[in-house]
Specification:
By secondary structure, this protein is mainly alpha-helical. The protein contains 16 helices and no strands. It is globular. 48% of the residues are buried.
């Protein structure tokens, strides 16, 4: 029996599905990479200065913000009429399916936003008052992504910033109070890898998005160019990973090539399937590939 049948409204199972636990790998990978970079540099240059408490706080903040973003996306897409339970191709959404009441989702959004802020606030002790500004920016754009930027074709830019530059660089900064050009390039590579998830999601939904005026990058450039873009983000990310080699971490460049192989086969599958719900398989594979990338980079950094 399908796991999404006979779900009681506002039940624990309904909330677990609304939180979309499979997306948490996208939140974890940038923090993992930022922590690995900081840990290695701390051992090499900073006499072992590294805070595990700050590391856990960064990870928890990332998880809570991802769940918050999922709740916001669930609520506003349904409220705006762009998430129809009958025509939806992607995984079912809580509000559209009636698993979670709209008023309950509003309260959940407020709660997760407050929890994220409370978890992130102690990072001021480690990273300074600038962490307050970073936290506020994350919260604001968590809402703006679904309500505005995803309709303007700017979602991919936000992925690069908030799943690449911000989490990797700020996680590193919290530990060592600085940031290097190597860390910046690593953050861009991470953002490109994770953007693959948005590309395949929007590729699947391109016809429905076009119909409701949601001008994602895929809608703007077309299906063929989007396939090339999906392949390109993986290739460019791995080439950007040359920064690891140049910085003496050869394994951190070599091991992620396993990700590139997986990414290429997923690209071929997307190209073959082309449209429909079957592309959800590629969405799952892309999430797996992202985690493989993050894991290979972390292992490569720690064992080079």
């Amino acid at each position: 029996m399908n796991e999404t049948t006979n779900i009681k409204t506002d039940s624990l199972k309904a909330w677990l599905l609304a939180a979309r636990p499979k997306t948490l790998s996208g939140a974890a990978v940038p923090v993992m990479i930022g922590l690995a970079l900081a840990y290695v540099d701390a051992q090499e240059y900073m006499s072992g200065t590294f805070s595990w408490t700050a590391a856990v706080l960064c990870l928890l903040f990332a998880f809570l913000m991802q769940i918050d973003a999922n709740f916001v996306n669930d609520f506003f897409d349904y409220a705006n009429g762009s998430d129809d339970a009958e025509t939806r191709l992607g995984p079912r959404r809580a509000c559209a399916q009636g698993w979670v009441k709209l008023d309950s989702m509003k309260r959940a959004i407020a709660l997760t936003t407050c929890l994220a802020c409370l978890v992130g606030l102690p990072l001021v002790w480690y990273g300074g008052l600038e962490m307050v500004l970073i936290g506020l920016i994350c919260v604001v754009f968590c809402f703006l992504y679904t309500t505005h930027f995803s309709y303007m074709g700017l979602g991919d830019v936000l992925v690069l910033v908030f799943f690449g530059i911000v989490p990797v660089c700020i996680t590193y900064y919290v530990q060592l109070h600085t940031c290097t050009w190597q860390v910046l390039l690593a953050s861009l590579a991470c953002g490109l890898v994770i953007d693959g998830l948005l590309i395949v999601n929007n590729f699947r939904d391109r016809e429905g998005d076009r119909a409701v005026g949601k001008n994602t990058l895929v809608v703007k450039v077309g299906a063929e160019a989007s396939l090339v873009l999906y392949l390109a983000v993986g290739v460019v990310a791995c080439l950007t990973g040359l920064v690891f080699w140049l910085n003496g971490h050869v394994l951190a460049f070599v091991l992620p090539l396993l990700y590139l192989v997986l990414h290429f086969f997923t690209y071929l599958k997307i190209k073959r399937i082309n449209k429909g719900k079957a592309l959800n398989l590629c969405l799952g594979e892309t999430a797996r590939n992202i985690f493989v990338y993050g894991l290979m980079v972390v292992i490569g950094l720690l064992f080079s």
